[in-house]
Amino acid sequence: MVLRTLAMPADTNANGDIFGGWLMSQMDIGGAIMAKELAQGRVVTVRVDGMTFLRPVAVGDVVCCYARCVKRGNTSVTINIEVWVKKVSSEPIGQRYKATEALFIYVAVDNQGKPRPLPAE
């Protein structure tokens, strides 16, 4: 798990569910944490592939981002990120389910923002 947070009322869409853009932002933050660790420095998000929203998220749900490196290039890493939800404020309490997933691609960059090689594993 790279990130755990609480879905709040300010993060809702017009239907009262948590806004998909907010979930995507949490995924990017979580993925960047792992990418920075692998790159041992600064990274930038360059692409998101296969974003799939499976189930809605409600206010008060605990949102957990899980990340796994699925590909490592010369300057880039591809991170699979899944968002799992734990119901703590609404029925059924304690239920867990996967809400969304996607592949996030990050590139390691130097201080000038130019791609740089990843360190050896």
CATH topology: Thiol Ester Dehydrase, Chain A
- The number of E-state strands comes to 5
Note the run of SSEs as H and E. Answer: EHEEEE
End-to-end span in angstroms?
21 Å
Largest sheet: 5 strands, antiparallel
Question: What is the percentage of strand-forming residues?
Answer: 35-45%
Question: Which CATH top level class fits?
Answer: Alpha Beta
Given as residue ranges, the uncertain stretches (5+ residues, pLDDT < 50) are none
Which structural category fits the helices and strands? alpha+beta
**Average pLDDT, to the nearest integer?**
97
CATH superfamily caption: Hotdog Thioesterase
Annotation keywords:
hydrolase; 5-stranded antiparallel β-sheet; 41% strand; Thiol Ester Dehydrase, Chain A; Thioestr_dom
Blueprint of the fold:
Blueprint: E1 3-6, H1 20-39, E2 43-53, E3 62-72, E4 76-86, E5 96-108
Antiparallel strand pairs: 1-3, 2-5, 3-4, 4-5
How does this model look, in words?
Belongs to the acyl coenzyme A hydrolase family. The longest helix has 20 residues. The chain has one domain: Roll (Thiol Ester Dehydrase, Chain A). By secondary structure, it is α+β, with helices and mostly antiparallel strands. It has one helix and five strands.
